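Lab notebook, design round three. We kept the backbone fixed and only want residue identities now. Task for the bench partner: fill in a sequence for the structure below.
Input structure tokens:
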């Protein structure tokens, strides 16, 4: 989603009013050849490595005379030096220059802005229409840097930038400082903190899941909590669905299921799953051995391996794509994952958790690790509940057995007491008979 903003109006405050503009470049003699400062800087950069060659072609292909900066040969020694240093810096940097706010940047910055390079290079920032929603923040930081004359930081600056046509969420630390006279403009240094942001989010989510799920007292309560918690994170999970074994509440024995668990076990879509009312009947209930839907085939694979299985875009049912496009980032889902409730082939799969992955987060090794942790928490929660239920049942059985044994013992003692009383009565009778005979 792009916020509609009048770019020129919002960025109108980006004016530079130094006491003097950059002075005209003085020529430099190199091996008898007269070179301008910028020509010398470019020559040095070409010699610095072949990785800059393509990048410098973009620089040299721009009609600089049509901008307030003028032809490259007229760039001052100060500007050429600053450009040279910026290009060799491994940290992402850009310079906003001149009254028409022309932006030049290095390769590290080009990697951050992704698909916007090279079209943004050497152009006025006011023409970066896709960035309209970020202009107020950029304007604020630049104005503060101009006012205070020192570096101004903007932490946790969230942006959504396209890579190969797909948007990614990134978190940046932006530092802006005004360039010293005679340069007219600002230097921006950017640190990409996306990895740290994502890691902290995932750690926080796993902590929340663990605390919530472990408080469940039954499988039914656990299913409800899982769906409530995950569906409440539409930007982290584009959609959430849960299939539970039809006899899950009665399945207390989790051992030796490799031989005892039937391949035609039925799994039912939980009523609290997103899109339940609009889910086709063939996707509401399925048996592992009798459904040829691509989605169900992947379920069977997850069941067989007891491991997460990734669903590609074409295998995701339409109902879940519609849900994803109505919430969160409102983007079509590229991938989803099936998480079985057991990672052990000797344990029954009580449920399958199906999650739409964030369309603005790459499915990389970090994402895989996060999903494995979610599965581990799911499996642990299920196993702990079943173990607790088995423990309660065992205690009940032991208590029942003890009660029965006590009752039997009491009956036996009562019987023995009765037998003793009868024996005593018989002895008394015999004694009385003996006395009468004598």
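Proposed sequence:
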């Amino acid at each position: 989603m792009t916020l509609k903003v009048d770019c020129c109006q919002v960025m109108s405050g980006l004016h530079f009013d130094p006491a003097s503009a950059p002075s005209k470049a003085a020529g430099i003699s190199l091996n008898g050849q007269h070179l301008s400062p910028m020509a010398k800087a470019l020559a040095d950069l070409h010699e610095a490595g072949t990785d800059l060659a393509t990048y410098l072609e973009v620089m040299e292909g721009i009609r600089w005379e049509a901008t307030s900066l003028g032809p490259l040969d007229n760039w001052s020694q100060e500007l050429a030096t600053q450009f040279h240093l910026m290009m060799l810096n491994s940290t992402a940097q850009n310079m906003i220059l001149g009254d028409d706010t022309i932006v030049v940047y290095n390769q590290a910055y080009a990697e951050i802005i992704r698909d916007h390079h090279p079209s943004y290079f050497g152009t006025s920032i006011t023409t970066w229409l896709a960035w309209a929603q970020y202009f107020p923040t950029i304007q604020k930081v630049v104005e503060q840097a101009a006012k205070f004359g020192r570096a101004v930081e903007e932490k946790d600056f969230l942006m959504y930038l396209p890579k190969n046509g797909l948007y990614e969420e990134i978190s940046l630390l932006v530092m802006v400082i005004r360039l010293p006279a005679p340069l007219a403009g600002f230097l921006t240094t950017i640190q990409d903190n996306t990895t740290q942001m994502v890691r902290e989010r995932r750690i926080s989510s796993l902590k929340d899941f663990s605390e919530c799920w472990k408080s469940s007292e039954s499988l039914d309560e656990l299913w409800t909590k899982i769906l409530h918690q995950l569906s409440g994170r539409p930007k982290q999970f584009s959609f959430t669905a849960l299939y539970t074994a039809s006899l899950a509440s009665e399945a207390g024995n989790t051992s030796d299921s490799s031989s005892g668990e039937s391949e035609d076990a039925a799994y039912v879509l939980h009523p609290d799953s997103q899109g339940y009312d609009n889910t086709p009947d063939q996707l509401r209930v399925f048996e592992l051995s009798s459904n040829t839907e691509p989605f169900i085939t992947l379920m069977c694979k997850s069941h067989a391996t007891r491991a997460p299985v990734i669903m590609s875009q074409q295998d995701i049912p339409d109902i879940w794509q519609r849900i994803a496009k109505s919430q969160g980032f409102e983007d079509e889902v590229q991938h989803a994952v099936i998480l079985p409730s057991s990672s052990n082939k000797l344990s029954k799969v009580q449920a399958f958790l199906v999650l739409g992955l964030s369309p603005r987060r790459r499915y990389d090794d970090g994402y895989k690790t996060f999903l494995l942790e979610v599965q581990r928490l799911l499996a642990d929660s299920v196993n702990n509940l079943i173990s607790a239920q088995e423990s309660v049942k065992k205690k009940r059985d032991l208590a029942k057995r003890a009660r029965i044994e006590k009752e039997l013992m009491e009956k036996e003692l009562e019987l023995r007491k009765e037998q003793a009383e009868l024996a005593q009565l018989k002895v008394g009778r015999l004694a009385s008979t003996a006395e009468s005979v004598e």
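Keep this in mind before ordering anything: The first helix runs from residue 7 to 10.
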